[in-house]
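Data deposition worksheet. Section B asks for the primary sequence of the deposited chain exactly as it was used as input, without tags or linkers unless they were present during the calculation. Section C holds the resulting structure in C-alpha cell form. Section D is free text for depositor observations; keep each observation to a single sentence. Incomplete worksheets are returned to the depositor.
Section A, Depositor: J.P.
Section B:
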Amino acid sequence: MELNVLMEHAPARVDDKGRLKIPADFRKLIEEKYGSDCFITSIDGEHGIVYPLPVWYDFQARLAKVPSTSVAKAKLLQRVNYFGQAAAIDNQGRVLIPSILREVAAIVDDVVVLGNADHLIVWNEEKIQKRLKGSPLTPDDMKELELHGV
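Section C:
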C-alpha cells in the first residue's frame, strides 16, 4: 500500500554524527511531494519535528498573521528558533538533527519516527512510551474529536 500522507510509525536510528536515517516510505513521500529541504525543530524540547520546507513556510505564513504583540507567538518563535535548523535529506536518506535538540530530547541511537500528515515527529523510544502511558486517550478526548467529525 502506497502512502499519500505521512502516517504510521517506524523505528529509525540516529548515527554518531547526529544524522537521522529517515524511514524509506516517509522519505519517498517527502521527496516526491515536497523535495529534500527541511526545517527541524521542537516546540517543547521533548521531541523533534521534521517539517518539509514548503510545509514549514506554510506554517510561517499562518504565524505571520498573528500580531507581533502576541505573547504566545513570541514564546513559540523562541522555542522553534532555539531548537530549529534548516537541513536537507542527503542521498542516503539522512537528515542532521540539531545538536541542542539531540541533547535535550535525547534523540540519539534508536528512535521512533511518527508520520503526522505532512511532517514527521521524532521521539526517544523511552520518552514516547512514558508519554503514551502517562497521557491516555480519554472518553472526554473522544467526545471532543466527535465534535469535529472524527
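Section D:
Helices lie at 24-33, 53-64, 71-83, 99-105, 125-134, 139-147.
The CA atoms of residues 15 and 109 lie 6 Å apart.
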